[in-house]
Amino acid sequence: MSQKIDVVVIGAGPGGYVAAIKAAQLGLSTVCIEKYTNEEGRLALGGTCLNVGCIPSKALLDSSRKFYEARDSFAIHGISHTSIAIDVPAMVGRKANIIKSLTFGVTALFKANGVVSIQGHGKLISGKKVEITKPDGSVKVIEADNIVLAPGSRPISIPLAIIDHNVIVDSTDALEFQTIPKRLGVLGAGAIGLELGSVWCRLGARVTILEAMDTFLMTADAAVSQEAYKALTEQGLDIRLGARVVSLTVNDKEVIVTYTDQEGKQTIIFDKLIVAVGRSPMTIDLLASDSGVNIDDRGFIQVDDYCATTVPGVYAIGDVVRGMMLAHKASEEGIMVVERIKGHKTKINYDLIPSIIYTHPEIAWVGKNEQQLKAKGAKVNVGIFPFIASGRAIAANDTHGFVKVIADVKTDRVLGVHVIGSSAAELVQQGAIGMEFGTSAEDLSKIVFPHPTLSEALHEAALAVNGGAIHIANRNKLQAK
């Protein structure tokens, strides 16, 4: 491979592998470098998301949810059973099989599209060259017209909680438990902490989540976060806000955690402690000192609105650049970058990237929340429709939560859609499609939604914005025109 490559991608996560496939589809010679290997020591494409993040966590969430429903909710449907048990190794084994299937799928897509994959650690050096250190220690250098940096992120480690992969674990370890911890602690009440806490709580663990912030899910709409706190605590999660850890002591097979809250110093003992306080960009040893690419003091690569770095022809996407650490954001940035390399004027509307937390009830939103808009002085109308009033939700015995639509008072343009409840992510995406085309609440209210569906809740919330909901009493009665 002595010739210059059109595009070299470092990292085969949801940003990198999508960028590589799209580049090849556009007729560009493409190489993708990935160092991650599976338990068998083989190259595993898909990055954190596919191997130890999005996909495996959803597999466990779905398995644990089915067990939870069978144990606690089948009777209302007239389904009885004498006993029910969970085989944790089988559950984790199913998750592993899903990963293998999907990583093989990415490998097949690379082959079908003509992407060359190289196993090893990629490092950007001067002159738009990439130094590749292979597993056997050998080093080779390839040159490219364009380079896309997509190395992803890793769990944040904190000095107080050194990961030992036994008692104190990270999110990756928490996907591999072979038994259910009796006392499970989680540091951090973000998406990762809540999802992993939910899995093991459903299976019988006594889960305590310690969150240093005083506000629960502060990036979510306040009404949504309040409902989520209520629902999750009712399920058994012990969520302690304003809990600042001051010391950890590992004693044999347990960890003693000391923290402070508004009541003073507290001590609690766990069999396992998951550290889920966030993720940091994986930029260590990614760039040579003379690469010319700038990194900020938090380790993020500095890019413009189109993910171009300070070096012409070098781009960075996904978790190593500004914005939310979301797989779908990384994928779209990968497509945007290679299409711009090809001469297109592709751009991303960063204001309309959905956020999802895959607990149950599911939590999702797109656009601005009510507190953000009011802080800017915006005047808005709000429509809320609870799932308890949805015939489809009642039939499914799944009535937690609501749909909330926020629209500008003057223009009626929808500024945010927020959902907590079953299929929240799917409903929010309907809102995102409309918002991308500048939809008004009235536009949504005039669309025919099928009955009975959960999506009718979005329809009713849009109607409620202007006081015209049909299946709930309106806060403000619609005025005749």
TrEMBL record:
<dbReference type="InterPro" id="IPR004099">
    <property type="entry name" value="Pyr_nucl-diS_OxRdtase_dimer"/>
</dbReference>
<keyword id="KW-0963">Cytoplasm</keyword>
<dbReference type="GO" id="GO:0004148">
    <property type="term" value="F:dihydrolipoyl dehydrogenase (NADH) activity"/>
</dbReference>
<dbReference type="Pfam" id="PF07992">
    <property type="entry name" value="Pyr_redox_2"/>
</dbReference>
<keyword id="KW-0560">Oxidoreductase</keyword>
<comment type="similarity">
    <text>Belongs to the class-I pyridine nucleotide-disulfide oxidoreductase family.</text>
</comment>
<keyword id="KW-0520">NAD</keyword>
<dbReference type="InterPro" id="IPR036188">
    <property type="entry name" value="FAD/NAD-bd_sf"/>
</dbReference>
<feature type="domain" description="FAD/NAD(P)-binding">
    <location>
        <begin position="6"/>
        <end position="334"/>
    </location>
</feature>
<dbReference type="InterPro" id="IPR050151">
    <property type="entry name" value="Class-I_Pyr_Nuc-Dis_Oxidored"/>
</dbReference>
<dbReference type="InterPro" id="IPR016156">
    <property type="entry name" value="FAD/NAD-linked_Rdtase_dimer_sf"/>
</dbReference>
<keyword id="KW-0285">Flavoprotein</keyword>
<keyword id="KW-0676">Redox-active center</keyword>
<dbReference type="InterPro" id="IPR012999">
    <property type="entry name" value="Pyr_OxRdtase_I_AS"/>
</dbReference>
<keyword id="KW-1015">Disulfide bond</keyword>
<feature type="domain" description="Pyridine nucleotide-disulphide oxidoreductase dimerisation">
    <location>
        <begin position="353"/>
        <end position="462"/>
    </location>
</feature>
<comment type="subunit">
    <text>Homodimer.</text>
</comment>
<dbReference type="InterPro" id="IPR001100">
    <property type="entry name" value="Pyr_nuc-diS_OxRdtase"/>
</dbReference>
<protein>
    <recommendedName>
        <fullName>Dihydrolipoyl dehydrogenase</fullName>
        <ecNumber>1.8.1.4</ecNumber>
    </recommendedName>
</protein>
<dbReference type="InterPro" id="IPR023753">
    <property type="entry name" value="FAD/NAD-binding_dom"/>
</dbReference>
<keyword id="KW-0274">FAD</keyword>
<dbReference type="Pfam" id="PF02852">
    <property type="entry name" value="Pyr_redox_dim"/>
</dbReference>
<dbReference type="InterPro" id="IPR006258">
    <property type="entry name" value="Lipoamide_DH"/>
</dbReference>
